[in-house]
Request: fold
Amino acid sequence: MNQITTLLEPDTQQDQLLPLDTEKIRQDFPILQRRVRGKQLVYLDNAASTQKCVQTIAAIRKAYEQEYANVHRGVHTLSQIATEAFEGARKKAQYFLNAASEKEIIFVRGATEGINLVASSFVRPRVSEGDEILITHMEHHSNIVPWQMLCQEKGTKLVVVPINDEGEMIAEDFDRLLGPNTKFVSVGHISNALGSINPVKDIIRKCHSLGVPVMVDGAQAAPHLAVDVQDLDSDFYTFSGHKVYGPTGIGILHGKAEHLESMPPYQGGGDMISSVSFSGTTYNEIPYKFEAGTPNIAGTIGLGASLDYISEIGLDRIAAHEKEVLDYGTEALSQIPGLQFIGTAREKAGVLSFIIKDIHPNDIGTILDQEGIAIRTGQHCAEPVMDRFGVHSTARASLGLYNTKEEIDALVRGLETVLRIFA
Ligand code: PMP
Reply:
């Protein structure tokens, strides 16, 4: 575990809901000190990717400078040290998700690969013509396209649960559309475009009462709220390292062991086999069966450090902090004349998606950039959400654990500049 106990006062370390000391936390993220276009950086693009803390950077550096060799296969010391660090990250991910076993933790490139793996290895053999796969209207493209591809191949129907004007999944429609033909459900835990938090535990309970397995796309949830896959009872849960203050090119897929055991490999190659001959190949045990080829060794170790970092701070404290900044931001931005929020769900994480009159979101983003403020503009890989709200794109400010109310004030000043320019 990384030493970040300095973030907490010694006599209060047990209190999970102590406010975050953002000033200290910000010192862990060197990039937040930099200036952009001569202004102090205000980084509000966390839903796209998060910044990296020194603990993660140090872990990656150490992996390359002192502990680097290929993993699993070597008898030499360095390979054993690297393997220990690499497998240590699996343990950290198990702890992070409260998974029943480290065998249920598969290293993937990110949430996108996690979903594709499940579509390909779990769902493909289980569906045929007339069957249905259920998703919602608020999904990221990564939780739409793999299912579309599979449906096209198998003649299966993709059924989409509508969302209301607030950007919430309509529960009655979900109940109506979940039927005897539903063979699989894949749902986002939190929408990246709207911030809506889906009632995934409820969804899973309903699906399981009909024997339907559920995948949760946790790309936007893992950094923002405590996830317990045993409590959720999810069949599969996936998230990306780069959204939990970790490296790109690495992510986690959790799957129940019984499912993983029953699934064919996703890709063939080294490491996923136990023996190969031209008359036949036997596959390695889980989780290695799903990890073909040399993995992202240093990235995995870096992800382990990031998971330690946020686990030690506490996801409940992070969630409470982000909610406070979100509420402050919602109130502050609602004072901007002509600003309309896209996504006003009652259960919402730190996403402020909005449009202002007929000002193009790209213009908003470009003007804010002049002030050192980084937000995202566009469709956020969620074109169907944009269509649902009748907009081309939105401006989106998205929060992370290091964001402050002062940064929201800076955003408001930036938006006032936008209004002045377009007056
Ligand atoms: N799902 C959601 C909800 C996301 O926000 C994202 C990333 N924006 C993804 C899936 C895909 O994640 P990645 O690109 O890291 O694989």
